């Protein structure tokens, strides 16, 4: 990438030098055209020297057209290089986000306390996805509803301990349908009008199911109140992380069940 930008700069330097040389040459030609036996004369016989003047004007026109053509080529090349640089930076940022998420997954495997494990996941999701709020809801068979087990970011008092029934709101829809939802203000107003909060605006949100062997056990959500909306690549990343997190949750439950069985036995 840096070689491409260096090439563009070399081309620009070449055009500048070419322009300087051409202007110098044209000044010299103009001096020769206006030269007489008495010295330089600005008034000369056009009828005798019109071929020289026309030729000089033609050279000037050709040079100007050539410079415009090269400038257009350099502008196109510069735009392509900048677009490639932006794309490369975006890909690098996404790989960084993904590596952070898998790093969190590795740390989750080392924790057997479900509460601390879920708290860690929600806290790490904020910097990984540049979110302002994150939450994890697990389905509780005893009450037949999804319940927030961990949350991080803004509005914690309004989020902690919240419950929704399957099929209710964004989280209930994602859990019952097993489909991820990419949220924007328009999508929320059109598909989930009951979840619109007049005193709070979001620029984007994600809600993905937490599945273990194809069966949903909860949902994972992130929102942004500032910045840019989430993209499809973030959906894939969060889905992958949610599945790893779901497997860790199930393994933790099984571990505690085995410990209880051993104690009873």
Percent range for β-strand residues: 15-25%
- Biggest sheet details: 6 strands, antiparallel
Low-confidence segments, ≥5 residues, pLDDT <50?
none
Helix fraction by DSSP (H/I, runs of at least 4)? 55-70%
User: How many β-strand stretches?
Assistant: 8
| Main β-sheet, spatial strand arrangement | 5-4-3-8-7-6
Can you walk me through this structure?
The protein is 62% helix and 17% strand. The chain has 265 residues and is α+β, with helices and mostly antiparallel strands. The strands form 2 sheets. It has a 6-stranded antiparallel sheet with strand order 5-4-3-8-7-6, with helices on both faces. A two-stranded antiparallel ribbon has the order 1-2. The protein is elongated and about 110 Å long. The two termini are 66 Å apart. The mean pLDDT is 77.
């Amino acid at each position: 990438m840096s070689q491409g930008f260096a090439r563009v700069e070399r081309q620009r330097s070449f055009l500048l030098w070419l322009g300087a040389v051409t202007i110098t040459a044209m000044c010299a030609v103009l001096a020769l055209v206006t030269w007489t036996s008495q010295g330089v004369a600005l008034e000369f016989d056009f009828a005798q020297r019109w071929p020289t003047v026309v030729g000089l004007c033609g050279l000037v026109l050709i040079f100007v057209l050539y410079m415009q053509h090269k400038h257009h080529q350099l502008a196109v090349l510069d735009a392509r290089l900048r677009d490639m640089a932006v794309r490369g930076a975006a890909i690098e940022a996404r790989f960084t986000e993904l590596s952070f998420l898998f790093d969190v997954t590795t740390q989750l495997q080392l924790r057997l306390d479900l509460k601390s494990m879920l708290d860690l996941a929600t806290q790490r999701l904020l910097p990984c996805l540049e979110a302002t709020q994150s939450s994890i809801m697990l389905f509780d068979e005893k009450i037949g509803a999804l319940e927030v087990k961990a949350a991080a970011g803004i509005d914690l008092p309004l989020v902690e301990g919240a419950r929704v029934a399957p099929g209710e709101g964004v989280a209930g829809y994602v859990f019952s349908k097993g489909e991820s939802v990419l949220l924007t203000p328009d999508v929320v107003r059109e598909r989930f009008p009951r979840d619109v909060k007049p005193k709070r605006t979001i620029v984007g949100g994600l809600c993905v199911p937490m599945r273990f062997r194809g069966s949903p056990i909860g949902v994972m959500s992130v929102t942004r109140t500032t910045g840019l909306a989430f993209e499809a690549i973030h959906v894939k990343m969060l889905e992958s992380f949610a599945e790893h997190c779901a497997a860790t949750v199930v393994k933790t439950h099984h571990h505690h069940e085995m410990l209880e069985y051993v104690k009873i036995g």
